Amino acid sequence: MSKASLVGCVLILGCGEAPPLAKVAAPGMCVDTGADAGVFVDVAPVASLPIASNDGGAVTAMPSWMSAALESTSPYDVARSLSDEVGPRLAGSEGDARAVAWGVRTMNAMGFANVHTEPVMVPVWKRGAESAELVSPSHQPLAVTALGWSGSTPKGGVTAEVMEVDTVLALTNLPKDAAKGKIVFANVVMPRANDGTGYGAAVPARAMGPTAAMTAGAVAFIVRSVTPNTDRFPHTGAAALRAVKNPIPAAAISTADADLLARTLAKSPNAKVHLALQSEHPKDAESANVVGEIPGVEKKDEIVLLGAHLDAWDIGRGALDDGAGVGIVMAAAQTVQTRARAEGKAGPGRTVRVVLFAAEENSVSGGKAYAAAHRAQASSYVLAMEADSGTERAMFARFIGDDAGKLTFASVVKGLAPLGIMQNDGQAHAGTDVGSMVEAGVPTIDLRQDATRYFDVHHTAADTADKLDARALAQVSAGFAHVVYEACDPRVSFGRAPQKKSE
Fold first, then answer.
1. Taking the alpha carbons of 432, 436, 439, 441 in that order, is the dihedral positive or negative?
2. Which of 30, 265, 325, 347 would staple 14 via disulfide (CB 3.0–4.6 Å)?
3. Tens of pLDDT, residues 123-136
4. Phi and psi at residue 8, in whole multiples of 5°?
5. Omega of the bond leading into 137 within 30 degrees of 0 (cis)
């Protein structure tokens, strides 16, 4: 596609055999809203959210552009390219710089206009050597990985008795010095759910547990990996230690090894673990958000924003988190342009801007920087969407905006019926990177994907391209393309979202 072919709308990018479409819509997932922020959004359970079928339950014929989008491998090809050709790309690393170059090169190759980078200063944390083992009453190696912003143990490591805590509440309520000289083990089990609510319930143990352990006098902290899967892949993720002076060594062990350790402690309460972690916290470095556009042909100054994050944790290749989101939004932009041309138009009515955000995993620096740079123009943003939920199919759509916008949303969502995507009247989740723009008044539509298997490989060495589902990615991307195309119509308004007052 030529650069000229992408003139029109603005998109911002966000995280095998395809399963059948979900028959029952589920509410949005509870999510960690920002790396080390320690802020979590609880979402009501499925039964409490009213679900509306599209078009009164009537079957809607699938338009030809949508059929073509479902056959496209573009979302998969883009995600696989980022995963295979760049791989690990934690903020401030050499991989991060390669990812920015990849983003510029790929946007240009796909025909986006106005491709450019917007510099972002990002905090840097580097993983070093890491190991753990049960040393008493038996010897067993433990699959371990340091948490983001973890401190280091002494070079020889630390050996100490283990104190197990099995709920988030008990962990955060540990009295001062209750674990003095011990290793706190947060053994909080994450249940499996297709709406991801189990993650929201368990992830505070990872994020806030290390500081709670420090207060309790612990010499180190280990957490059961935040996943419902039982295997020996440890899951990393940010801990709320970035601003902490002399942070505690903090790591995650695999769920299989967490079970082993819990069984051992049940028989031998004085069991000991040896933990050795080395990490660095260098000075901030420069990264960038990568931006490309499909310029609008009627109201080019009005923007539809699609986002995904470009960075990924260092132990995997970031195929699902968030190569999948990058592929979804970039392919959606292509589909918008293709549809416009098929209808005899030069492009969409409004500009589509795709933003590949920097440093979502460890700080949300890219999303915050973008909002700071563009907040004054927030009134010109018609809609913001984000893709950061992996490779599975979209189940339902939700909305954040005013009452007038809800009417537009309900009308637009009817067009998603052929994809099996229903309207859900629960509160939408504003994506981590576009959240600041939503707080500035930009409405958002959340296409919630099935999270049943997402957290099996989330933040692990297993986050590789073989996990990508081309058919499911095409379905999600087609859903984004429909919403974006409708939002680019100059006659369409989603109103404004409730605006958060500046502090």
1. negative
2. 325
3. 999 999 999 999 99
4. 160, -75
5. yes
Q: What is the pLDDT of residue 500?
A: 79
Of 268, 74, 240, the C-alpha closest to 164 is 268
Residue 230's alpha-carbon distances to 47, 85, 190, in angstroms, are 28, 30, 11
Q: Which backbone phi and psi does 333 adopt, to 5 degrees?
A: -60, -45
Where b means 16+ CB within 10 Å and e means fewer, 447-456 reads: bbbbbbbbbb
pLDDT of residue 428: 84
Buried b (16+ CB within 10 A) or exposed e, 42-81: ebeebeebebbebeeeeeeeeeebbeebeebebbbbbbbb
Q: Is the peptide bond before 489 cis (omega within 30 degrees of 0)?
A: no
| Mean pLDDT value of segment 333-358 | 97
Question: What pLDDT shows up at residue 248?
Answer: 97
| Residue of 156, 128, 158, 147 lying closest to 274 (CA atoms) | 158
495: left (phi over 0), alpha (psi -120 to 50) or beta: left
* pLDDT-derived band at 211, boundaries 50, 70, 90: very high
Least confident residue range of 16-25, 148-157, 383-392: 16-25
Structure tokens at 325: 């989101």
In the three-class reduction of DSSP (H, G, I as helix; E, B as strand; rest coil), residue 157 is classed as coil
Question: 476 with 328: CB under 8 angstroms?
Answer: yes
Please report which residue ranges of 394-489 form alpha helices under DSSP H.
Answer: 403-413, 435-439, 454-457, 470-487
Host H or E run for residue 79: helix 74-85
What does each C-alpha distance from 190 to 196, 198, 202, 315, 469 come to in angstroms?
A: 10, 5, 5, 21, 24
- The predicted pLDDT at position 253 comes to 98
Q: Is 101 helix (H, G, I), strand (E, B) or coil?
A: helix
Give yes or no for a contact between 236 and 264, defined as CB atoms under 8 angstroms apart: no
The tokens describing 500, both together, are 């958060």
Where do the domains of the chain lie, and which CATH numbers do they carry?
3-123+286-487 (3.40.630.10), 126-280 (3.50.30.30)
Active site residue 118: no
Neighbours of 272 (CB within 10 A): 17
Rg (CA), the chain: 23
Q: How far is CA 314 from CA 96, 107, 192, 460, in A?
A: 10, 24, 25, 9
Q: pTM for this one?
A: 0.89
Those residues with Cβ within 8 angstroms of residue 244's Cβ, 6 or more apart along the chain or in another chain: 149, 211, 214
List, for residues 371-380, the tens digit of each pLDDT value: 999 999 999 9
Question: Of 130, 360, 392, 486, which is the active-site residue?
Answer: 360
pLDDT of 48 > 90? The answer is no
